[in-house]
Write a structure and sequence with these properties.
Rossmann fold; globular
Amino acid sequence: MTMESLTQEARHAIMSYNHKKAAEVARRAVDESVDLVALIENGLTKVMVEIGDAFNAKKLYLPHIVAAAAAMNAAMDILAPELERRGGSMGEGLGKFVICSIEGDIHSIGKDIVAVMLKIAGFNVINLGRDIPMTDIVKTCENEKPVAVGTSALMTSTMINQKTLEGMLKKAGIRDKLLTNVGGAPVTQQWADEIGASVYSENASDAVIKMTAAVKK
C-alpha cells in the first residue's frame, strides 16, 4: 500500500473517530516500514489541526475532540514505540527537556510526537501531559533544572498562556537559565518573537533541528 493511501486511511480513521481503524493503519505502516514521521505529520497531525479548527469555529464540540484524540492515541500507542526503536540509541546527553500542552489545552498528540522525536535525538524528556497548570510547569522547571521547556497550544484561546508562562518563569528567576520552545497550530514565529520565546517549532522535525542546535550553541 502506498504512503498516500495509508495517510488517507489514517485521516479517515481520525475523522470518523474510529480508534480500531486508526490502530490497524498504524500496524500496517509499521509492517510496511513506511516513513512514520511523515505519516504522523501529514496524516494524523494535520487532521487533528482541522478538527481543532472546526472546534474553534463551533462546528464540532468537546466530545468530538475527545473521540478524535482517542483514535489518534490508538495509532500513536503503536507508532511511538516503533519510532523510538528505529531511532535506536542516538542519545547525546543533551539534557532534560520539559514538555507539555499548556494550561487549558487538552490536545496532546502533536506534543507527544515532539516528545518522542526529542527523546530519540538525545534529550531526557519529561512529558508532563496535557492541560498542565502553569504553576506546575514552573515548579517542575525549578526542581528538574532542564535545559529547555516546550509548550504546545492548539487553540488561540490557550496561546495566551504561553505568554503568561514566560512572565512566570522570569518572576521565578529561572527564565534566563533555560530555553523556551513554543508550538501548536495557531502559533507562529511572530508570536514567539512577541512573547519572548527562545524557539518556535512548526512541527516535530523542526523542533528537533532547532532545539538540538540551540542547546549545542
